[in-house]
Amino acid sequence: GAGVSQSPSNKVTEKGKDVELRCDPISGHTALYWYRQSLGQGLEFLIYFQGNSAPDKSGLPSDRFSAERTGGSVSTLTIQRTQQEDSAVYLCASSMTGGLGEQYFGPGTRLTVT
Amino acid sequence: KNEVEQSPQNLTAQEGEFITINCSYSVGISALHWLQQHPGGGIVSLFMLSSGKKKHGRLIATINIQEKHSSLHITASHPRDSAVYICAVWGMETSGSRLTFGEGTQLTVNP
Predict the structure, then answer these.
(1) What residue in B sits closest to A40 (Cα-Cα)?
(2) Stretch 10-39 of chain B: residues touching chain A, C-beta under 8 Å
(3) Do B90 and B28 touch, CB atoms closer than 8 A?
(4) Which of A10, A22, A88, B80 is the most buried (most CB within 10 A)?
């Protein structure tokens, strides 16, 4: 299958630890997005990568959150010093052409901070 | 007030009924997306609209740019249509590039 993949599918971590979440977009897609969905809440934009441009980080909730996209492909979302309120499903999506293109979502990573 | 509002929040229908879910937004947009999220959490993009109407199988999406309103219709609904339907807009006026999401409409279709 050539869909968006994310790993791990589930992550349980202790408060204060750092976590890394990985996203493999569809090959050839230039745009990559990270979203967060807290329990019972709607989707929340986190960060957007488009090609080689500087990412739009305006949705990141705090400076504990950072993301990289290496070689225009794989992306890693890092959360430092995790807090309980970081518990959520973190979703990655990619699209071929950016904002006006159809987005293909990964299955998500369910993060639980204890 | 949210930039994107959906109604109803919850909708229960009998199999075969015609379903309408509404989305209103308050900002100028470049595009509007309808997404479907199944109980397992997976999200599928149904439509991306910037004007007019699109149809895919039993699903129809319309948008009225002047009225800042979109509707998603499901004809001959089926229990497998049970899911959360999410409206999202790509704004022209917001800085950067982001989708702004509605809260979603939980649809349950009973057999």
Answers:
(1) B103
(2) 30-31, 33, 35
(3) no
(4) A88
pLDDT in tens, A53-69: 888 888 899 999 999 99
Residue by residue, what is the 3-state secondary structure of chain B? CCCEEEECCEEEEECCCCEEEEEEECCCEEEEEEEEECCCCCEEEEEEECCEEEEECCEEEEEECCCCEEEEEECCCCHHHCEEEEEEEEECCCCCCCEEECCCEEEEEEC
> What residues of chain A have any CB closer than 8 angstroms to a CB in chain B?
33, 35, 42-45, 48, 50, 56, 58-59, 89, 91, 93, 98-105, 107-108
pLDDT of B94: 54
Cis peptide before A25 (omega within 30 of 0): no
**Count of C-beta atoms within a 10 Å radius of residue B19:** 19
Distance from CA of B58 to the nearest CA of A (A): 19
